[in-house]
Amino acid sequence: MFIFKFIKLSFLDEFIYLRKSPIIKEINLIIDKSFLHKIKAYIYYSFIGFMIASPLPDEIGVSMLAGMTKIKSWILAILSYVLHFIGFLILFSI
Fold first, then answer.
1. What's this model's pTM, rounded to 2 decimal places?
2. Is the C or the N end of the chain the one with fewer CB within 10 Å?
3. What is each CA distance from 76 to 21, 36, 66, in whole angstroms?
4. Are 73 and 5 in contact (CB under 8 A)?
């Protein structure tokens, strides 16, 4: 939770600047043309969910979630708990 709030507050200006950069605008334009908005959101959240549920560091997924979405911290806590549980189930079933 500390990392989420720290990134959300500290890097807010950088995320806004990044969204306005020409390279990111062009990438978003290409993605918007090729995918529907709902499909793009599902892909994005699936990737973030994989990053949080995997044994990789959670900070990557939390940073992406804090920077690119408007999610409440209590929803993040529940989501993180559920994804960690699913990740442990997958790891222990192998």
1. 0.56
2. C
3. 28, 25, 9
4. yes
Number of domains, the chain? 1
b (16+ CB within 10 A) / e for 46-71: eebbebbbbeeebeebbbbbbbeeee
Q: pLDDT digits over 29-56, tens only?
A: 777 777 777 787 788 788 888 888 887 7
pLDDT at residue 2, rounded to an integer: 67
- Residue 94 neighbours by CB distance under 10 Å: 4
Q: DSSP for 39-74?
A: HHHHHHHHHHHHHHHSSS-HHHHHHHHHHH----HH
The two three-digit tokens of residue 80, written as one number: 């993180």
Please tell me the distance from the alpha carbon of residue 28 to that of residue 19, in angstroms, as a whole number. 9
For residue 22, the model assigns a pLDDT of: 84
Range of the domain at 11: 2-93
Q: What is the mean pLDDT of residues 1-20?
A: 68
